[in-house]
Request: fold
Amino acid sequence: MATVCKKKNFSLKVLSRNPDNYKRETKLDIHRAPQNPEAYLHPFALDREYQRALNATKLERVFAKPFLCGLEGHKDSIEVLAKFPTRLAHILSAASDGEIRLWDLSTKKCVSSVVAHHGLVHGLCSHRTGQYFISCGQDANIKFWGCSEEGQISPDPLKTLLTKQVYQCVDHHEKEDIFVTCGQSLDVWIGDRSQPLQSYKWGLDSMHYVRFNRIETHLVAAAADDRSIMLYDTRGSSAVQKLIMKMKTNAISWNPMQAFVFTAACDDYNLYTYDVRNLRMATNKHEDHIAAVMDVDYAPTGKEFVTAGYDKCVRIFNAVEGHSRDIYTTKRMQRVNHVLWSMDNKYILSGSDEMSIRLWKAKASEKLGVMKPREKTAFNTTEVLKKTFKDYPEIRRISRHRHVPKMIYHHKQEMRDIKESQKRKESNRRFHSKPGAVPFQPERKKQVVEVKD
Amino acid sequence: MELSKKNEGQEKQKINYFFPKEPDKRGGAKFSFSRRPNENVTEKPVPEERMKKWRKGDKAKGFAKTYFHTNKIRAREEIFEKVAEKSARSELLCVEETGGLEGDKTYEITQNDIKESSDEATQQKIFDLRLDKFGPYRLDYTRNGRHLLIGGAKGHVAAFDWQTKRLHCEINVMETVSDVKWLHQETMFAVAQKKWVYIYDNQGIEIHCLKHLDMALRLEFLPYHFLLCSSSAKGYLSYLDVSIGKEVAGICTKQGRLDVMAVNPQSAIVHLGHPTGVVSLWTPNMKEPAAKVLCHASALRDVAVDASGIYMATTGMDRRLKIFDLRMYKELSRFQYIRRHCPGLLDFSQKGILAVSRDNVVEISLPRSHKPDKPYIYHRADRLVADLMFCPYEDVLGIGHGWGFSSIVVPGAGEPNYDAMEANPFQSRSQRKQTEVHMLLDKVRPEMITLDGQIGQVDVKTAQEAAEERLKKKYLKPDKVDFTPKNKMKGASSASKIVQRKKGVQEQHLRAAVREIVRTKQVEGKLNTRNKNRKDLEPSALDRLKKKSV
Reply:
């Protein structure tokens, strides 16, 4: 409003708001909300955001209820878990009594089951199309099982291969009709042949775990009983590399997004992430378990992985961090032998000694189900806030706190003491010896004994 | 050739963002909302001068310890830059303009002149309430500037929407009223009465009697902390959390009667004025003042802090008006009034306009251009002025005086563009309820009121202590910590200060090195004495296997 008064010669402009410009026109409209980013109109903006982040962190802990359900039905301890690369809801599991079950996660029920082998089932893997899966067992058979779209397993195997040796693990190629089995040797099978196309052997010991790389699809990593991890190329005639560590490796998982990265679950309570281009030093050491790590599986995003511990817990690690971001336990869960991260990045499955498969949420406090856009935005906002203020002492304390079983809590402290005393001893030794005689050795290098080409 | 033909064909076509697709046989969408492929939309960059206003600090220089972290910081800075750019671009959406009054002698322009030459809505804002029985009056506007609360010293309290002139309630509390204050919204207000502070709702029903706060003379409310502060005749400063009804802090200031109080809206620090001419700054977390500023050589009349929290104005019995910079606690300017005139009450508007009362006169001056003899606007009230307050988001100054209340128009006083997320003059009832819930959820804890905001700062002190702790542990590889002094705010990074800070760090390293040497020597000494003791025995061939000191 600007006017000019002639009498006293002044021009006047007064703030005069027309309410019509600020109110909504009809009841069906949304309210008008003009904004002004001027700093002085937003006092304590940072303090309020901090408060919001704090509240969000607290709520996250309040809603952290990861356990969804137990999948009951097996009559013996779980031997293997396997997922279908192209089906979200279906999961395969095999038990020590030779039974294979197919579970539907959306209904949380067993769809079909079949007694596949006499004695233990050692290995289980599915074909990329999901039309059939392969199992190998104590009875020295490799069996192919048909699997319908609805999850019905064919009552009889499509094909049975009688082998001379008992295979410990089986894995299928990502694209071609090739699969590998391992036992006394690493055998590559192709198409309809009843004899392996290729058989690799390096040293005397037997192998117990084998995995195909999902990107560099001909690369295979195998873990052997002589504490070694071997890399093979299925197109070549001999092994590529062999890494010998101080302790045995129980399981290996390739990073699905980075072709050259794999993580090994080791008997020395730790996991080691390696870059295949340089095996002399791990790129990361993941500690926190207080007993042997039995299994590891990457999330489909490649950013996180889940581990199964002999210490009766499941832990989730950020792939680039040295300590776990979360731990899942229940009172009744016994030694966990197998874990799986579902292909939709939302769920985790764990198979443990007491014949039960457990279904967990990958993010403990995540809300399941359909969300409205506003809700989704609110969650996104709180995520960003939590990330922004994550290093503030109060927020870090709350977000890191976990109520763990007594056994784990005390054992963890013990481990910490052991580690500290070892370090002290080493430093004393260094102090009392010639300079340079006791060198500093990186933690990521200590476990490597030898690398052979 | 083909390519050029293709381009020609495209030019001839009409530009159409939403073009129909071939009708889908399966009944899918009939329109595709995608941009035409070859069309690039480039935004004009924001001029550097405008960006400068919105940037909140300098860019980080140099590199972090690792490449990874350097990149992380760079990525973060990119986001900050984007925020600044968006803020600069959103200036366009702030459509209302600040008011103004231009002419030769603006102080000669009366409210009547303004009334004659302004629109009807503005005319409505100039009004007087003749309430000569219960005065003098104290007043308070709500944070959105919509509602007004007045309280006469003899017990008359009234709350109303001053723009529509709709009365919420009018009561007589039958006691002396020394101050009135709205709480976080227009649903509740606090009245400091003769003995205790009472809280009423907007219908005038007494909800609470706060016996914690007795003999209160002044009330202030901190909306983001939900704290009601009162200063009492006995020298007590009390903080009461109105959301839980608990007294957060009760501080005995030992300064006598506290009848001068102001709040810094940016830091929630309470400024108390004392008869000694001292302004003391208080937080609820300390029993002692966080700072004291000697402002005047005589008793203080009033204190006011501006909306940006930078400037503080004080008036004293020595007939002076002073303006201070709160970042440095430095006097910026002072004005001496003539003998018969003594400046009294003060208030800053949102845009920094300062109103000063002396007796029944109110002088209003533009930011940082105070001239006692030639003010921006000069207004004479009916009686002695008892309270002054600018209405937020309006060009209006409310004056409480002996004969009631008058509202005058001061062009350019209020912020023209409000932020509906903070304060909304046009909010509906449901919006009000929603806001209340959000305010309670985001309530800032009273512990966070500090002289220098701690949340945004880097905690170098704790980091240094942790590093020192680490250095003590012999078995850890010594950490290299570089506490290079950063260029701080004005004044803090003079050459001598930098050297001082650097010296402090160097000294720590030196101390660590000395500690190392001492320890080595101790061990050496031990070995020597051990060997010496052995020397008493007969020398033997095995002596050469003895441990020698280095």
Notes: The first helix of chain A runs from residue 19 to 22. The mean pLDDT of chain A is 92. DSSP finds five helices and 31 strands in chain A. Chain A touches chain B through 47 residues (CB under 8 Å).
